[in-house]
């Protein structure tokens, strides 16, 4: 799932905050460490991309993956999002919810999470001479989804690639925030007779369901899906 092994040259990592990635609220939960950002992106299937057009602000969920110091997305050439992102600034977010934090007071309830906010402008992959080709980016996407899958399937043809736009945004201006651990109750609430602790949440992998017409025995990556 991690596509970080790409040899693609890297943009500068987001080590220092900019004015808009300087976390002010609960700043003790902030990180600008590229390794934290990479881990949050690599664990994600989906990001949300916020952008503005003549009708206002939109925030659209879409699949994402990482190669080196860029986050990648793709879509149909006809997609409004794809067309607008080439024109201007946007903000990408990723959120993983790891648990519900049950405090003794209503006020101190919280969530455990890992989140990332990335600012910048997407560029089109395969044009303007950037070093990752559209095909290489899409193959990295398939490997991010299910390692080993790319070797088995029919690769995209010229017509399919021509109908698809791949975009990437540099991870140069980004902030992460993470919370973990127990509730933080006020001292005067410690005697309240309420259960306190964390109700963990995690994504579950279900049992693979073969397509009705599939006569192929399950390959390793399918048999290992739930491990
Ligand atoms: C699962 C989840 C649930 C949350 N629930 C609540 C809630 O119910 N109420 C609430 O007030 N807040 C909640 N938060 C925290 C929320 O995301 C904001 O961090 C918080 O509201 C402060 O926002 P702000 O714009 O005032 O922060 P500021 O500190 O002013 O933000 C400054 C900059 O810090 C960065 N930043 C801010 N928040 C995040 C973040 N979460 N991840 C990465 N970068 C960030 C951005 O670059 C932002 O521009 C939740 C977060 C998560 C992940």
Automatic annotation (TrEMBL):
Determine the domain of life of the protein's source: Bacteria
What are the start and end residues of every segment in region (Disordered)?
Answer: 1-29
Q: Where is the signal peptide?
A: none
This one is known as Pyridoxamine 5'-phosphate oxidase family protein
Identify the species of origin. Pseudoduganella umbonata
